[in-house]
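Action item from last week, closing it out:
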Amino acid sequence: MGRLTIWFLLGLTLIAVNNVGFANAEVGPSESECRPYIEKAIKGLKTDGVTSKHDSGELQSDQPSRDDDDDDDDEDANSANDIDGDGIPDDEDDDIDGDGIPNDEDDDIDGDGIPNDKDDDIDGDGIPNEDDDDIDGDGIPNEQDDDIDGDGVPNEQDDDIDGDGIPNDEDDDIDGDGIPNHKDDDIDGDGISNQKDKDIDGDGIPNQEDNDLDGDGLPNEKDGDLDGDGKANHEDDDLDGDGTLNHEDSDIDGDGLPNEKDEDLDGDGKANHEDEDIDGDGTLNHEDSDIDGDGVHNDEDHDVDGDGLTNSEEPQSLDIDGDGVPNALDDDIDGDNKVNEKDEDMDGDGILNEHDNDMDGDGIPNEHDDSHEADDEEEEVKKRSKREVDAAPIVDVEAPASPAEEFPIEEEPAQEEAVEVEAEPEVEVEAAVSEEEQEEAVNDEPAHAVEAEKEVEEDKSVEKTAEAEVPAPEESEEKVAEPEEAKAEETAVSAEDEADEEEDTKPEDELLWEGAIPRNRRSRQHITELLQLDEEFNAREKATDNVAEIILRDIKKIYENAVKPLETVYKYRDLSNRHFSDPEIFSKPLILFMGPWSGGKSSILNYLTDNEYTPNSLRTGAEPSPAYFNILMWGNETEVLDGTQLAADYTFAGLQKFGQGLEERLRGLKMNSKLLEKVNIVEIPGILEVRKQVSRVFPFNDACQWFIDRADIIFLVYDPAKLDVGPETEAILDQLKGREYQTRIILNKADTVKPEELLRVQGALIWNISPLMSSAQPPLMYTTSLWTHPYQDGAPARLLLAQERAFLRDLRTAIDKRIEHKIASARRFAVRVRNHAKMVDCYLNTYYNHKTLFGNKKRIADDIIDHPQNYHIYEGLSTLTNISRYDLPDPEVYRDFFRLNPLYEFKKLQETCTYFRGCPITKLDLAIAYELPELAGKYKKMSDAALASIEAQSESGSETAQAVPAEPKKTR
């Protein structure tokens, strides 16, 4: 019976192992899986069932005692806590199964013959891993354990945190707690909830730098559930799972970039300007009442697209609603699904159009916004064309007009008579015409042979068209007269058009270049580099442009508050042509080229704008070019403008005061050039010194002064062979008084001079010009050759190229300092207005000091005006106010001014003061001494901060791009 009992117990052991170890298995255990349990049972039999010789001769185990049962219970308890029986509890044992391999290196920690990555109970404590608070049995709870599966690899570096053999990015339960990731509040099992966890997936990469936030193997931009919470992004109120709702979250997608600086707000891999759903809420922008997802309705949101720029500060080139369509081209600027024409708040800034000073949010006040005028003009053109169409007679057209019909051939009277007699005139007459002209072409002189061949080809095309249009026999008689009448009308119309073209012919073609392209041309790559026309500089310029707009508005505010009141009271505009208003404040930098004829000014303009040897190149050559003011501007398409169009432009509207004579000498050229996006370039007609002074139909020097006052940098261009200085040049150089620091001299075509003579030519030019510019210092000179022609043999090429590069850097500096130039121009104008006001006040004080009770006020005023030296007006003003005599206009100017505006009609400066508003002259003095100079410092600080922000973003972007995730490690 003892042996039967033993074998019975062995059977029960096998059944128990089968039920406990493999109860959930779909397939029965294999022999290798059962072997450890069988060996364990056999080992127990050998220890418990050893035969001992008793008197009865039976096995001792057949007669169990109570003490033996107690010992067995103790052994079972010890085996449960100490698998290898070494006396060390498993949760403290570095080698649980006693195989000599430390747990963190053991592929089978509990020694059950099942590899850890396939073992449902890694530590062999009888608790399945998914229910076990300590999976690896090291006595440390999982949420506090840096190595949950006990494989010796820290969790943040472990590709399989829970040791189940499934990589984390494929594992639905990363931490092995039995809760799927999308339902797990702690995905990586580190004891920190996802909302507070700075590393949700436990891969060692912070969330804001992690390309796979939830560790599901999908990059964030392709992940439909960014934070792995089981909610699709467009349904998730907390996109990045940081516990802050999207409309309150300053970083919606959790990439470390604030929303206003994030070019991909929702982290879907689409740039905001290309994303149809910027905030990723599942509602398209044009249907979304909150485009940027900040919780503020579009109508009340001052930054609709969430890019950090308020709608009113958003430059025209940007996109207020972030739909990828620039504001200037967008039918719905603010993205509220209302077309601009029907939108009561076009730019979405919360201010109704009728009360909004900037309806379209482009930063330009309505009264100076060309886009509105263009819309009005376009609307007027549509209405006018509609009226013309409605008024035009209706003509039946049977077939499209052929080239022969558009340009009809004049026919002889004999042919016309044949048309009236014949029943089918078109075919026969045209054929007769072609035969006669062919015979004439054969009999003609060789010089006319080519023309005859062309006429024959045209006649053939006419014949084919006529054959296609021959009417049916029964309708031919009725329709014979109609084509002839239509042809006669077209002939008359074409003749009128040709006459109109001859009358309206404008000398625009004289501006254009005609010639051969040289074979070897110098590269222009250094121009793009030194002028910073590459795309990499766009972000920097965009940042500084936004700051510049703020400073320009401040300049306008100071002008309106401090300068304009006295300018209006003392009628400064009647005294001088030097005005200052919005066009002078908000216009692009102006680059001015002037100098003697044939110095190479037009060649330089073609060279800088990459417009050489094209159909629209400015005319160049040794002979003097037409005397036009050439103005180069930016445009989407190349277009030649006449003076009337230029005078209507916002920037050059001030030229209208110089009369029609100047408008006829203005020529503009619009081009799609990167340089012209940043500046306007003007070329003043070449100065041709003549012995006899010729009167012009417009004030040439005043027009030149208008451009000089608005120029950011001035270049005087000279040819080494034409260094003469005459009265015309002296008058122009005298107008540069006060602008010497902005004036440069270019000795062009320097490669035509021998190197040993070049220094002598430079010295002669400096000595000729410097005394005429009222400057003790010689002007800055560039000696070079500015076109793509290769330098002539023997020319100092290195010197010429170095000088050219210095010229380009100087030009770029002028572009960068445009705000400083605007501030300086505003201050100069304010000083002129102040001097004028004090001059009028000085005249008035002198007038009231000499006026008597019964004296004739007009006679006294005229005497003071005609003889100011007798009353010491200029000397007294210079002494009392520290105003230089050279800063004051000549007495003749004030004589003309007071004839137009009687002296006694002005107020004294003291009388312009009020109790509440103070004295205008005091405000003007403060603006000149403090407010305008302080703007230069303010601009520098703001631009430096903007550039630092751009650099910080680029550095963070490069660091993110360089961040490489840890290499996947093999699972043991």
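Closing note: The longest strand covers residues 629-634.
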